[in-house]
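Backbone-to-sequence.
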């Protein structure tokens, strides 16, 4: 019988809040963000260094040597060729850095 009373007391402590313990009250909803005025144009900063990275032809990409990464258990191997450079719309090349070893 004392076991049941111990269980009942434990459940009561979980269900009924203790006296003097403040209850959590969520912050009131503030509503959606108000609308703003914008020009509708992209910022003047452009892309990297002020250049837009618009690729002319994906077939003209240059790649580094093939790399492979293996899972720790050796079951899965991922093989890829990191991009070395791409041909931009203005016929210049944008080089990417050397990939990590």
């Amino acid at each position: 019988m004392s076991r049941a009373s111990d269980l009942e007391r434990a459940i009561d402590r979980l269900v009924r809040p203790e006296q003097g313990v403040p209850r959590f009250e969520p912050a009131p909803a503030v509503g959606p963000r108000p609308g703003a005025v914008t020009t509708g144009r992209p910022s003047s900063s452009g892309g990297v260094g002020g250049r837009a990275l618009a690729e002319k032809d994906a077939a003209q990409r240059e790649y580094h040597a093939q790399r492979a990464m293996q899972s720790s258990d050796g079951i899965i191997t991922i093989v890829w060729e990191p991009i070395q450079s791409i041909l931009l719309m203005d016929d210049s090349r944008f080089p990417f850095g050397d990939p990590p070893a």
